[in-house]
Amino acid sequence: ETGVTQTPRHLVMGMTNKKSLKCEQHLGHNAMYWYKQSAKKPLELMFVYNFKEQTENNSVPSRFSPECPNSSHLFLHLHTLQPEDSALYLCASSHWGGGRGDTEAFFGQGTRLTVV
Amino acid sequence: DQQVKQNSPSLSVQEGRISILNCDYTNSMFDYFLWYKKYPAEGPTFLISISSIKDKNEDGRFTVFLNKSAKHLSLHIVPSQPGDSAVYFCAAKGNSGYALNFGKGTSLLVTP
Question: For B19, left (φ over 0), alpha (ψ -120 to 50), or beta?
């Protein structure tokens, strides 16, 4: 148990569906992240939230929509996805102090998404 | 463009021997480096890190070496154990940001 919980663990959705991934961290961190892991590729950073404010969006298509209602919860809303979006989606959190007191990122177990 | 590179997708080592996993980076602004370990169907877990002010950090069987001039770091596991079989990701970040840049990972297999 890393203190970062993701639900669901597995998700199969059609291209016309709308679904949401949920992430919750119990570590008191102030930064949360969505990463995507596709086969034979490095973990790709998708979104970063610091103190609930989105600070990075790495050219992610608009069919992925993040939401961070508070510093403990992070959502990834999915709609009209493509089969190539099938991947492992990982949530992570860390404490960011601008260099001082930074911690390493703690990851959830991921959601294995399959788009059919 | 990939800023963190792990050029060996896989490595096989006998139990008891040393495992050496390599990582190269291109961004000279990176000043903090981490290794993560990932088992199938689980998220990555933090293993060991090193700051750019050091060239070596040791934690039990795990040692990370940093060569800043070569922009290269390596993870040594000795002695290797079958339970070490996993995918190892190298990651790096600079002091102006907090998101990690990851390599593609190296799959380590430790055979009995």
Answer: beta
